[in-house]
Amino acid sequence: MSFLSTTRGLLAASGLTLSLVSPAIAEIQPAKNVILMIADGIGFNGWLAADFYDGEAGSRPYQVVRPDGTRPVLVGQSTWALNPVDASGELLGKQETADAAVAQAYDPAARWHRFEATFENDFGPVDRSYTTYTDSAAAGTALHAGKKTRNGRINVDWRGEAAFTPVGQLAHESGRAVGIVSSVMASHATPASAWSNNLSRDNYAEIFNEMVDGRVDVLMGAGHPAFDNDGRRVEATDDERFRFVGGRETWDALTSGRHNDYAFIDAREDFEALAVGRDVPEKLVGIFQTHRTAQARRQHQPADPNTPSGMAFIPNVPDLSTMATGALEALSRDEDGLFLMVEGGAVDWMGHDNDMPRFIEEQQAFNRAVGAVIDWVETHSSWDETLLIVTADHETGGIWGEGTYLNGEGGPVAASLDDEAAVESARFDPTEDRFERFLAVQDRGEGNLPGYQFASGNHTNELVPLWALGHGAESFRAVTRHDDFAARLWGRGAPYDWNGAYVDNTSVFAVMQGAMRTSAALPTSLPSRETKADTTVEDIALRFAIIGDAEPKPYAQFPGMAKTVDHINRLAESGQMDLVAGIGDIPHKGTMIQYDSVTAVLGNLERPFYPIMGNEEFGSTERRFLQYANRWSVDQPSIDSSSYVVERDEVALVFATPDRNGRDFTAEGVDWVEERIEELAPKPVFLFTHGTPVGVIPEGGDKGISHPDFDNVLAKDNLVAVFSGDLHVDIERINAFREVDGVQHIHVPALERTKVPDKTRHTPYFHVVSVMTDGEVLVETYRAGDDTDADARFSHRFDLAG
Questions:
Q1: Which of 406, 498, 522, 748 has a CA positioned 20 to 30 A from the CA of residue 213?
Q2: Among 578, 544, 539, which residue's Cα sits nearest to residue 772?
Q3: What three-state secondary structure class fits 546?
Q4: What's the angle, vertex CA 379, arms to CA 373 and CA 385, rounded to 5?
């Protein structure tokens, strides 16, 4: 065990900064340039479909070793969001006010038991879409801000109160230039999530106005009010046509050069001039000449046998590679570096339509853009100073190989996309169709559509691929888990040679942030929401919350934890709250699905969180615990050991993981605790450990710390209190506070289930400890989810002097 001492200055909420990266990620040096490229709505099968059509599966520029020897890193990515629920745990709709939020999660063990597992809520008895899978807003928030939220939110927590700081804003604050490019509306969910904060992705005008507030250096996308989806000029008489570009007033100011010093372009030739370095302005907004998307919605172009759809492209619209190159030409004038997000946004739209030819067209445009970016890096920069990430935000359409399921009505695909009934019928219906086996899309040769089926018209919760090149790319390997069945489908002898390793989408933000070496800010209140002014109680020297065991089973859902985190945040908003302590047993058996799910909840905690390991965490490793613990709370200090000391002026907090099995200590572990308390004398000490000494709580109990040398710890004169959990005691029926031989023993109640004296009922509680300037200590017990001004349900007082 190692010793970690954290000063009071570091703990002060007003002075904290955040590093969401694990120790392995934190070691990388700064990258000058970070480029994130997102193909919206495409998974492994969709990616293979386009690669097979082009005859380039496994040989794209980002899929092969580069000329300087730089090797791409390939991992999968999980994309799930949070589901809002009411007080009884029932799922809520998009606009309903929630009591808590639970993780949708991705479980590689459970996913392959049932074909429709990744989109099952589209069917009865739930029949509610977007409750099994994410939308682009929640996925974009995870990618760009490292936080899980409910669908529809743009860098805002699930409650709609706290605003997260996305990577675009962090890059700007670091001095880098910021660019955002999309093939769909510039204010659409994915480009918005690179910069903006908004309660709803549908507030296009608000979002666009935030994106052109003068801090984003380059913004490009669709949304032109004076052109239709075929690039034909129309009369923009309706104010509704201006919503994607901030409203009529913003548009008029932009197009006349009167808005925050932005130059404005919309003609294809101007985008092309920019791409070759001509007429490069300092700041630029480029809205190309279509209303919603570059090419995907065109209907009135002549035939062209050289396109997958057989229709010619709109001639007055630049392609995505031209826009990406032009953005780099402008942004690279900043000597401090750049952040650029490029989205192929209409891949998703064609997935919703189950239109494979145009799906491939959109992915081709995206792939050309990636190739252009790689050319720029290798010509004007280098992989030593640039990080490139190529991925998706989620899968759309449920694309599988032909023969994956037998359709009860017709063939594997609709004979005509104009026949909506046929398109719907070709999708999987568990009441009518028969699943056969999981099949990857089949290669039918270059220039031919692959063998495929669209199982859905919505998103799914499938893994998506992620390639990373350059500075910091290897950091993804530090936070992976594995899906062996997925590897058999799309790797191991397949064109991508993928081993099944995958990361959560929040890791994308962590790697980018680590590469740039930026520090994230605390969440702030949304401007439209009133917040309570902080109050200072002069006689409180230290105030902190303590949260207990969780370990939910059989499902990795944490509604009690979510209520507690929210309640603590509200208490912190209305008064002093210096930190939060934990006493272990958060993820059941230490599995990654449990860790992933609870991280989505704890990541919203707005005060520094200091946890230890319990016996459940011992189901895995200390390394895994530390990887996740360093991502818990928005204000998380770096923790490099599972046992450590946090020292304050008034009292020292000793966090001691029981090193035998998470519940008891070895002789070495007891020695470590004893030495720490001795070193701190005469300062009073609070000891946080998972198990309580045997027989203390409940009185006469037989579980806990039984090592005989632990009596030496309890005999230390400056040990004032021991906080522990483990037993899931119902504190309404069993006393949670005991004094034994001058030491206060305080049981921390569990958040997800009660065991002692029985399992008949459960109420989540947590403690708040206030250390007064006069040495008195007040422990108040709150019921999670109560109103902020509700009284504590229990209280206990003692004195630091004993």
A1: 522
A2: 539
A3: strand
A4: 75
